[in-house]
Amino acid sequence: MPDNGLHIAIIPDGNRRWAKTRTLKPWEGHKVAIENFRTLTDWCREDSRVNTLTVWCFSTENWKRDQKEIDMLMGLLEEYLEKERSTFLENKTRFVHSGRKDRIPASLSALIAEVEEETKDQTEFTLHLAIDYGGKDEIVRALGKTDDKSEDGISAALDHPELSDIDLIIRTSGEHRTSNFFLWQAAYAEWDFIDKFFPDFSVEDLETSVTTFADRTRRFGG
After folding, report:
1. Which of 3, 45, 90, 222 has the most CB atoms less than 10 A away?
2. Domains of the chain
């Protein structure tokens, strides 16, 4: 385990399918998922093994979805951030965002910037949300920011080079794809593919993943 704690990432897949099995609208699945995400975040914050939690909320490819679903999801994310901003400070949580800010609603983009600024000095736990994020897109943007094309140069130009590389990635819903998720930072991450839809993914499931990860031997190519 890294000295500063684990960096865990979650691809919260299956929200729409969860809703469909209950004859609900897709955004009803996202709404339940955000409540579940809040519970999982609390567990990570309180577990001494975990330092950073990354969650993929919206990918660069998700713009292909129905516009009403997109609008509802963006509204849910904005509502979540507005409700949680004071809690972040109370719980000494730093909030950061990776991805593009120019294509999401201006109100959400502004709120993200405000909460990042408000929490920038918090050090006990980091919540990292990926919104309008794609691994290839991040690398392309990084290459455009720097003339130093070495590994260190590119790494320094990524959205949040100060964050440690991802240790464990959990993907729900039974899908077994990496799907353009933090390609650079996940180069040596361990993966745990879970059959449950994300709204059904529990704290107990998360704890099992983290505990099982601790028993793995990581060789980093050696």
Report:
1. 45
2. 6-214 (3.40.1180.10)
